[in-house]
Amino acid sequence: LKQARNEEDTVRNLLDTALKLEGLFRNASTHAAGIVIGDRPLTELVPLYRDPRSDIPATQFNMKWVESAGLVKFDFLGLKTLTVLDRAQKYLKKRGIDINYTTLPLDDGPTYELLASGQSIGVFQLESQGMRDTLRKMRCGSLEEITALISLYRPGPMDNIDTYVDRKFGRIEIDMLHPTLEPVLKETYGVIIYQEQVMQIAQVLSGYSLGEADLLRRAMGKKKKEEMDLQKVRFISGAREKGVDEKQADEIFELVNKFAGYGFNKSHAAAYAFISYQTGYLKANHPVEFFAATMSLDITNTDKLAVFYQDARRFGITIVPPDINRSMADFDVENGEILYALGAIRNVGFEAMLSVVQTREEGGRFTDMFDFLERIDPKAVNKRALENLAKAGAFDSIHPNRTQIVKCADLYIAYAQSMAAERASSQVSLFGSSQASRPRIPNVQMTSGPERLDEELAAIGFYLSGHPLQDMLDVFKRRNVTLYAEALALAQEGREAFRMAGVIRRRQERAAAGSGEKFAFVTLSDPTGEYEVLFPPESLRKNRDHLEPGNSIVLKVRSKGRDGEVRFFGDEAAPMASSLNTSDMGLRVHLGQVVDLAQLRTFLEESKSPQGGEISLFGEVGGEGEIELKLPQRYRLDAQLRGRLKSLPGVLYFEDV
After folding, report:
1. What are the angstrom distances between the C-alpha of 63 and each of 35, 46, 60, 264, 514?
2. Which residues contact 419 (CB under 8 A, 6 or more apart)?
């Protein structure tokens, strides 16, 4: 290469040009929220560049040099939480409630009680598990304390959270460093949290001007030794002039220097804390509107919707399952209930659901499936969307047989397409009726309860209208199985061991630091909610085969509580069918006049088990009296059989005996 450079002009020019380009920026990247402001037209101060993808010009100088050129930088952050607040405000206005977020009382008891209990899911900046744990410890009682929490909950200053909490509750003595600094540090119990405190300490203790104090703050952030040595001399000499002992001034400087490296800007933290308070106020005082607005912003994120749904249930809020004649494309509030959004159903498309709702509002409620198909745009509602709407139960009010819609989706869509083509060509009769005949839809047996719930789970992302273990509550009670909600309450009172049950939603395995051994977080669901169980390495090795998503299991767990937060640890897990012995139990099934006996026989045949329980059929015979027929076989009285019986036409109800 050296020889080619010396002998060939082309190679020499290429390498010389490459050296000039080396280290230069090769693209015009921009800060996501950075805006610069000048005191005159920007063309007089810096070179500009116009990105063809944006209407706003960009500076060709980078962030460091624009300041030297005389521009001021601002970050204008777009927060989706502001949209949550706006939507909730509109929901409340429909109820005749006007809320002004800027004039909220800052001493609202329910808001601080909510935060102190850690019930901050969905609250801006405060919804992570770690934040909820810290809220329980800190028990914020003012906007200033929320501001401190947001500033402390970061790498570095996080180590001072316990000191802050212990000083707040008087467990350890508050150290103000020097009597003259009490006005500066009193609000934060002597803990240096903010950049503004660093500047004030320099002003009060060493006589810095505001400009000098800002230079000190910057120097401490950069950690340049030469600058820091000069600042230290200035700080100590200024403190000496104000009568502060030189040794103490040196100690305070080193302490301030340590904190300044990760000191947070208080004005920034306070602005965020105010939004946290606003969302906390909304959740504490208007939870229905809060959840509806929050869910609407995460309408495509089914995992987050599941979390919000469970949290809403804990607040006693009813979420109405999707209904083609009642639901909107987005989440809505009606009579104190949340209407589940059609647009939140998987694979249907939000814009498509807007089209469906518009059709309904213009032409009235849909009377049956054919009326629906004759009026909607088949380009908006395709086969997949139709199937998922059915699985989610959106058509239950006009066509309860979800399975028939799914199995006959091709026929339905073909009819919708023919009707759309007819409308487009204006081929209607003199009397306005359609020329196309409605297709004959074959009879299809409805799926049983468990399969129905599984389909709903696939379409919505979580169990909404029911739970596959709902019919096992009597069995759980008899077999000393504790439901999650009760276990949580008992664990908070000090109980440490439980027998629990659930359907596994997901399993996440991770490697332990150091040993590299695998442990797992297993998320389960029971009729009272979702909960997480941690399986340590040894327990995971013993139970891994039973911890597959979709399995119904019974497990032995230990609970550990700290600061109001409860965690469950798994010791043993086993399939529910083999764990819950029902041999000494029975099921009495009450039948109506007309029963699908063939289907009943099929369900029972598939549930035979020598270790199972007894079943008797109870009903009227020809209006002449009641009869109870005890079946000779034994059966697994599990959730699957109970769900199937519940969905079978002619079965009135059943009871454990």
Report:
1. 10, 12, 9, 20, 41
2. 373, 374, 434, 436
335-365 tens-digit pLDDT: 999 999 999 999 999 999 999 999 999 999 9
- What torsion, rounded to 10 degrees, do the Cα atoms 271, 275, 280, 282 define? 140
Q: Could you tell me if 504 and 549 are in contact, meaning their C-beta atoms sit under 8 angstroms apart? A: yes
Contacts of 215 (CB under 8 A, 6+ apart): 231
Asked if 406 and 387 touch (Cβ cutoff 8 Å), the reply is: yes
Chain mean position to CA 634: 44
- Rounded to whole angstroms, the Cα distance separating 94 from 398 reads 28
Going by C-alpha positions, the residue among 593, 557, 594 that lies closest to residue 574 is: 557
Cα 614 to chain center, whole Å?
A: 44
Say how far apart CA 574 and CA 502 lie, in whole Å: 11
What lies within 8 Å, CB to CB, of 14 at 6+ separation is none
| Contact indicator for 593, 623 with CB cutoff of 8 Å | no
Look up the CATH architecture of domain 298-460. Answer: Orthogonal Bundle (1.10)
**Cβ proximity of 401 and 455 under 8 Å:** no
State whether residue 89 is helix, strand or coil: helix
Amino acid sitting at position 233: V
**135: burial class by Cβ within 10 Å (0-12, 13-18, 19+)?**
buried
Return d(Cα 406, Cα 390) in angstroms, integer.
7
Helix 266-285 vs helix 287-297: angle between axes, to the nearest 10 degrees?
120
Q: Are 548 and 506 in contact (CB under 8 A)?
A: no
Count the neighbouring beta carbons within 10 Å of the beta carbon of residue 526: 26
Give me the phi and psi of 71, to 5 degrees please.
Answer: -100, 155
CA atoms of 531 and 133, how far apart (whole Å) = 16
Q: How many residues does this entry show for the chain? A: 657
- Three-class DSSP category at 403: helix
Q: In 3D, which of 271, 310, 311, 275 has the Cα closest to residue 83?
A: 275
Q: Does domain 470-577 have CATH number 2.40.50.140?
A: yes
Which pLDDT score, from 0 to 100, does residue 155 have? 85
| CA distances, 575 to each of 179, 392, 552, 578, 585 (Å) | 66, 28, 6, 6, 19
CA 418 vs. chain centroid, Å, equals 42
Query: Tens of pLDDT along 449-464?
Result: 778 888 999 999 988 9
Q: pLDDT tens digits, residue range 510-569?
A: 998 888 899 999 999 999 888 999 999 999 999 999 999 989 999 999 998 776 678 999
Which top CATH class is 2-75?
alpha beta
As a whole number of angstroms, the distance between CA 426 and CA 431 comes to 13
Q: Is the Cβ–Cβ distance between 466 and 454 less than 8 Å?
A: no
Convert 603-641 to b/e letters by CB count within 10 Å (16 or more is b).
Answer: bbeebebeebbbbebbbeeeeeeeeeeeeeebbbbbbbb
Structure tokens at 331: 């989440």
At 226 the three-state DSSP class reads helix
516: alpha, beta or left, given left = phi > 0 and alpha = psi -120 to 50? Answer: left
Band (pLDDT 50/70/90 cuts) for residue 623 is: low
Report in angstroms the alpha-carbon separations of 320 from 289, 291, 522.
14, 13, 28
Cα distance between residue 424 and residue 418, in whole Å = 10
Q: Where are the domains of the chain?
A: 2-75, 94-269, 298-460, 470-577, 586-656
